[in-house]
## 1
Amino acid sequence: MLNFHITYPQLINCMLETTIIKKSIRKNSKNISLRINHKGEIIITSPYPLSAKKYQQIIKNNQTWIEGHLIQHLNSQNNCFPENIKLTALDKTWHIEYQKTPSKPKLMSLNENSFIIYGNYTKIEVVQLLKRWLTQQAKQSLYPWLQQVSHEITLPYNSVSIGHHRAQWGSCNGEKHISLNAKLLFLPSILVRHVMIHELVHTIHFNHSINFWHCVARYDAHWKENKKILKTADNYLPDWI
Ligand SMILES: [Zn+2]
């Protein structure tokens, strides 16, 4: 459990220390201007180069304005991040907390159904942390699940791994190595089972022949329906992924 809470004034100090200040010289600009871009960086534009002291003075003179906009920026950034992750396949939901600190971005488990992302994170870094977390969850749940289905339908495989493929839910190669997409966890369990059966049947049929589908049908009575739903299963995925 994290035992510190960051209030806005503390946060602003941290942010001001870590905020990038970019100096832009534009000969045709008439005045010195200040803005905060979409990355939360401060941009000072001037018609001619300024001294370090002058830049500091500009920051100091506009501190209230900068603080207000940095808070706004922080809030708008946080709004894009998921507050909860529901893994439909496991029928489980996790709550996510966020805390901006000057340290390296990290994800830490708080208890069984919540975790925290803290540090000086960007949106990309949050997505990376969430994907890594998802891979962990997939390994923990899909590995024993595949083993169970394989045992049930008596189709053994040699090895299994978790991937983040763009357009594939699973694959099986000639060495009977099965790869499962971590995003399967967002799908209803019946579809996960369908994908597992599909890949396990590939251990004896290496194509999508009539025999292949006959075999799939033997283990998944609703295979036609499941196959159809799987085509639009992207709808089950959250926006952040
Ligand atoms: Zn296939």
Note: The chain has a mean pLDDT of 88.
## 2
Amino acid sequence: MLKVAGLKAGYGRTQVLFGIDLEVRAGEIVTIIGANGAGKTSTLRSISGLTQIYAGEIEFKGRPIKGLPPEEITRLGLAHCPEGRQILQRLTVEENLLAGYIPGRGRSFDEIRTQVYDLFPILRERRHSLASRMSGGQQQMLAIGRSLMATPDLLMLDEPSLGLAPKIINQIFEIIIMLSKSGISLIVVEQNAAVALEIADYAYVIDAGRCSVEGGAHNVLNDPDLKAAYLGA
Ligand SMILES: Nc1ncnc2c1ncn2[C@@H]1O[C@H](COP(=O)(O)OP(=O)(O)O)[C@@H](O)[C@H]1O
Ligand SMILES: [Mg+2]
């Protein structure tokens, strides 16, 4: 589904990724974990066409996507739910969903909106509320809902649990599992490594702009050395 090879990227003259290799197979949940500042967000932003790429290849559904504009990448079926949610605070819930809708992916706005509201009943209930009036957890649901409006084949979630209470985090992860069961492939970036490793199939640990470790999520979860080094356990 997605292959990243030898990715080097950064911001102007500041290189922050020094050779990232990763792969997502169709139907998988892949997690990317690592310390703050390791390069997780930059990796997702590179895949989405939002950073400057110096070297490497990115292939999505068998097609090179490096250098394509972000909208074009989304249109191909790759959606990115950014860190910090980035929803439009002054717009209503429904207007935010409309902003995420990508025409020409075979389904109407109404059709996908109904699916998103079925997945997140609270968004239906509050569809005319301003996004700014929603709680952190509801805003995260809205951010995920907006990404789903693009009908993604692969959805990348950047820190979906950030700043949320444990109970809400569980709800969000339940949703991620449901999305996976519905056939969407996922990349979940998390500082909350333990939770992400519980639900993921495969894991990459990024350290200072490089993939330092990769493996089956349960192997990474249960490796005591990795726990000590990366999971803060
Ligand atoms: N817009 C930017 N301009 C310059 N440097 C940035 C920018 N965004 C992130 N960085 C730097 O890139 C590195 C990786 O950051 P980031 O990808 O956000 O890490 P993570 O998501 O793992 O916390 C950090 O050193 C960070 O300071
Ligand atoms: Mg980040």
Note: The mean pLDDT is 94.
